[in-house]
Backbone:
């Protein structure tokens, strides 16, 4: 079976999230801010009685912030951490599709990427001739200390 990815856009780039980590895709909605949150943490949302922290993908990747548009989405993803699985929201500019990658291949991130790649990139794939950066949400989101915020109602 071929690996499937949710392809999404942030700051004009295309990223991939393994479909087995994505629980659902939500339209943009108001996010409640909490005091003294780091800049990449947008706040929390309610998803059917569960409190879910939301991270801005642009901020997490070091891109400039942007206002929500009609295409803005929140991916609700499962993240593995020291205390087990937790759930996070990731705001992204848009979601394209669920798809496989060309030749079903994901290459390791280039060695020139250094610590950045080690922190959040699982590999690089191609789709329709363009690059798709496959993100490792476990490393990306755990490195921000965001996961402990989740609670069940």
Residues:
């Amino acid at each position: 079976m071929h690996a499937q990815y949710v392809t999404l856009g942030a700051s004009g780039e295309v990223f991939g999230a393994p479909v087995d980590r994505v629980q659902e895709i939500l339209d943009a909605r108001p996010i409640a801010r909490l005091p003294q949150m780091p800049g990449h943490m947008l706040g929390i949302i309610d998803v059917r009685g569960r409190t879910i922290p939301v991270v801005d993908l642009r901020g997490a990747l070091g891109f400039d912030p942007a206002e929500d548009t009609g295409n803005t989405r929140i991916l609700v993803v499962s993240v593995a951490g020291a205390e087990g699985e937790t759930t996070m929201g990731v705001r992204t500019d848009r979601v394209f599709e669920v798809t496989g990658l060309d030749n079903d291949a994901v290459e390791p991130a280039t060695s020139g990427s250094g610590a950045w790649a080690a922190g959040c990139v699982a590999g690089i794939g191609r789709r329709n001739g363009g690059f798709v950066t496959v993100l490792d949400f476990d490393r990306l989101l755990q490195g921000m200390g965001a996961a402990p915020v989740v609670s069940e109602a």
Q: What stands out?
A: The longest helix spans residues 114-120. The chain has one domain: 5-148.
